[in-house]
Give the backbone structure.
Amino acid sequence: MTAVQVRLAQGTPCWVSLTTGDPDGAKAFYGSLLGWEFEPGPTRLGDFVRAALNGTEVAALGVVPPGTAHPAGWTTYFTVDSADRAAQRIRECGGTVAVGPLTTDRTGRTAIAADLSGAVFGIREAAGHLGREVAGEPGRQAAGRPGAPTWNELVTGDEESATAFYRAVLGRSVATGIRYRAARPGGPSRWRVHFAVADTDLTVHRALALGGVLRAGPYDTPDGRVAWLADPQGGRFAVAGPARTGSGPV
């Protein structure tokens, strides 16, 4: 089946990428856990690979750039009509732009930024590569596509300020594909990406066997059964599958 890319509206989550100090270890972990295969990415971005499910791109993995403040972990990217205008708005609204905007061969123009509370996110002005080609559906087994990103969640201690910031920068607040969760008092703000899986509990056991860490769950939610994990290199993410009514934590 040929994947069809659709140009997304401004502010839509369109891509996720992992920066890590151990790309080979990350490929082994996520390849075994989520069934990903890998292919080379844009050379301008350094040691960078794209992850795919049966040839369909879903994410990217790269090395933490030396000498930069870009943290290791997963980054959620949002579609923008103009990366330069969005970067300007980020600064005007009190955020910071750490990398870019810069132009790559297929991706278009991208930048890495942080909101008022320090949560890191990316923006993408699409060129030939419009973003992820497949996404899951919360609580619905990723519509038969385990391993695909299914939703993005902002963990923050100040939802009101975060909503105002993202509305000003991206022209939207809480919309499909974006959730808010209260951070622990004094805890850091961050974007958390959820990947669809066929069975959350089995995925957790597999992650632990591969050297991952269980941070919370599994537990049932209106969107399915969720667990928060960290890969062996410390990158935090979540998995979501069908609910198990009446079942408890793993």
Notes: The first strand starts at residue 13 and ends at 20. The first helix runs from residue 23 to 34.
